[in-house]
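Input record (one chain):
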Amino acid sequence: MGQISIYMMLLIAVLTIGGFVYNRSSALGKFRAARAAAGGKMAPLAWHSQASYHGYFTAWLVALSTLAVFIVGRVINGQGMVFNGLWLAAIILTGLAVTIITGRKVSGTFRARTYVERFIHGLLICLSVIAVLTTLGIIASLLFESLRFFREVPFMDFLFGLQWSPQTAMRADQVGQSGSFGAIPVFAGTFLIMLVAMAIAGPVGLMIAIYLTEYASAGVRKWVKPAIEILAGVPTVVYGFFALLTFAPFVRSFAETLGFSVPTQSAIAAGVVMGVMIIPFVSSLSSDVINSVPQTLRDGSYALGATESETMKQVVFTAALPGIIGAFMLAISRAIGETMIVYMAAGKAANLTANPFEAVTTVTVQIVALLTGDSDFDSAKTLVAFALGLVLFVITLILNVVALTVVRRYRAKY
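The corresponding structure, as predicted from the sequence alone:
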């Protein structure tokens, strides 16, 4: 049944493209005939819509009608009534009929462009509604499951507790005990790794953006910028492998030479590698902000005798500062929500510490650990994952709102 559906979808695509080509060609032919009949003096503006709009009008009608036939046939076949031959014939006949009917409407007065633009407008509205409903569905799922968790564990004990041991929820004598679900160590580990990552990505990304926009030649920019952006295309699981197998052992070996004992999984290993991953994010956003500063401000600074570095520090950077702050806030949100790197390189120990050379855990690591495997979603042990996700969602939302507010409020208008 699945293979038949694939063939049906390919057939719908072929009929759609065929309808577009047929009616576009038909419109071009009628247009040329009308111009020839007028002695070659007929202007294209005499037709309301271009030939391509007539093709698009046919294409989306063919696509919608044949897709409707496909869905109806799918439902009927799902009831155990198999009629693949009739189903195929119905799709083909529907596509051909719509193509012929719309082809008869091709003329200089037919408002194909208006219908196509209305369809695109409606499609964009539908897609926007789907995006909003998806977001609301995510929020609702997090909220409802979190409320179930907070019926068993007090909210204040979860948000301000200092002991994180959700595995005790499997024991009836400890379910809901104060401290078992204290999330402070989890959020402390999350923010510790975020600080380490931003300590690497922030300065390095900003300096790269300044160099590429203000100092680098066109040839250097042509090669350096794509090379840096390659880092953004590397899968995060690859960064996790690199942190676990290469960078973390290096940190441990280096610390041992200095007489310190550092575990293989640590906040410094995950944070540094995450910072490298976020560098293209910071540099790209900062470059866009710096490039948006008008050249006239630079020229005015040079005219007053300022050097290139003085212009950068006192004019360009000052004008671009709100946007750079917004870029940093968005990068912080990206660091807080990272999963694979911290899951592989930071460890799972819920340590309440400010030492980056110790193993810590994060919100995303705990969510993965709690929801993988056979899980019973009626216990506090698994429901706490939704509470962690809800708090993480709220934190990320606040950071994004702050970033947008800073950019909109302090952005200079030139």
